[in-house]
Amino acid sequence: MGHMKKYRCPVCAVTDNVVGFGRRKKVLRYFCKACHKHFSVDPCFLDTKTILSDHLDGLSFRDLSRRYHLSPMKAWRICEEELKKLPNNNQFTFNYCSLFSNTFVFDGKYFNLAGKDHDWVFLWGIDYFRHDIPVFLVAPSESYQSWSKLFFYLRVINHYPELIVCDDNTNLKMAARKSFPAVKIQTCFNHFKENIRRDLKVRSDEAYKPFMRRIEAVLHDKQSDEAMNRLLFSLYEDYQKDPVAVSILTNIERYRSELTGYRRIPGSPVTNNIMEGLNSHLESRLAGLCSFQSLSYARLWFNGYVLKRRFTSFTDCRGKFRSLNGKRGVDLTKKPGVDLPSLFLIVINRF
Fold first, then answer.
1. 3-state SS, residue 60
2. How confident is the model at residue 156 (pLDDT cuts 50, 70, 90)?
3. In Å, what is the CA distance from 337 to each residue of 83, 188, 328, 331, 333?
4. Residue 90: enclosing H or E segment and its boundaries?
């Protein structure tokens, strides 16, 4: 004859005085005769790693509760416990990864934090050629101090990029030059042109549209100094009596070194489109979560999100990155002879 499994009372921590008290659907109810308290036990197995994976894919606790027949609070407890088991991403990089390329793309993504009067920002960067994400930071703003702290993490893992691609963020650029004195900065062509469009109001005013089209030709793709000088001088000859156009051309010349930072680094980008794609993907995940209830949980979630990306194989890389399909970012940067731990279930990449 079988015996009923004994459960420990969560209040007084005894088992001898615990007796069965019925059930509610699949949940078993118990009563402790010592402290006169009731408690419930769910004997059904829950795949907590799958629950966490769905949460990192953007399912809220309410959605998880409907999918797995849990209470939202239990879904939160499961996700929090699983997230706490994961290593810190920046420390993980220090322990296991070192083979990063010379080109990085950086950007920030703002997110909502309940109880705060302003959005916080998730600062991160990707190895352009190997698509790995070594470090990140959750910060109150994109200040010089915040970017300096992120770049400090790169210095801790002993990596000094030769080229950093970013939008026209002064704080980021100043922090990068302070942390890596020899680094080159490449300002994203798309962001630079968008700033000019906004200054000229070309979407609502026809006056400078022909001028803007010629600016776009200058900043369309990589070209030599000779070709760029020829196009800019032609613009100056045609618009030298227009103070607005001259100020735009002067600004381009002032940014010349940042608009040609890609030179002598084969295959380097002139836009931060790769980060725009990552931010768009992250935005779709954050939309389902609406907001984070605490800063500590936000840090846990972003840490899990980054680690999951690093441990998921690429399936949709195109062009010069087609060779990355079937590989994981963390595999491309791990130290020689190091065995990586298994942090997530093996899944098909949905990124």
1. coil
2. very high
3. 27, 37, 17, 11, 12
4. helix 89-96
